């Protein structure tokens, strides 16, 4: 079951460095995501680890595909 997050929230599924199953709603302001994805941020202590889409960390950077 997919979950949804606002593009203004600093969560993994809205981060440039999160690699998981996600897509953007047509308005570009929300992300639909499922489960876990890998963090690829070199600034995050979670680099290389799987994180839930609704998790967050200090190395968050807004996904460039979002408005």
Brief sketch in words of this structure:
The protein is mainly beta. It is built from no helices and four strands.
List keywords for this structure.
67 residues, mainly beta, four-stranded antiparallel β-sheet, 0% helix, 36% strand
**Roughly what percent helix?**
under 10%
Q: Give the low-confidence spans.
A: none
Average residue-wise pLDDT: 96
Number of domains: 1
Element order, helices and strands?
Answer: EEEE
Q: Describe the sheet with the most strands.
A: 4 strands, antiparallel
Separation of termini?
Answer: 24 Å
Number of helices: 0
C-alpha Rg, in Å? 11 Å
Report strand %. Answer: 35-45%
**Oligomer class:** single chain
Q: How many strands in all?
A: 4
The chain-level structural class is mainly beta
Shape: globular
Write up this protein:
- The chain is an all-beta fold and 67 residues long.
- The chain has one domain.
- It is built from no helices and 4 strands.
- A hairpin with a 5-residue loop joins strand 2 and strand 3.
- The mean pLDDT is 96.
Secondary structure blueprint with pairings:
Blueprint: E1 3-6, E2 18-24, E3 30-39, E4 50-52
Antiparallel strand pairs: 1-3, 2-3, 3-4
């Amino acid at each position: 079951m997919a979950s949804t997050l606002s593009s203004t929230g600093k969560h993994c599924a809205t981060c440039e460095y999160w690699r998981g199953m996600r897509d953007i709603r047509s308005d570009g302001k929300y992300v639909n995501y499922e489960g876990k994805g890998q963090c690829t941020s070199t600034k995050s202590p979670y680099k290389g680890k799987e994180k839930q889409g609704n998790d967050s960390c200090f190395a968050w950077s807004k996904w460039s595909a979002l408005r």
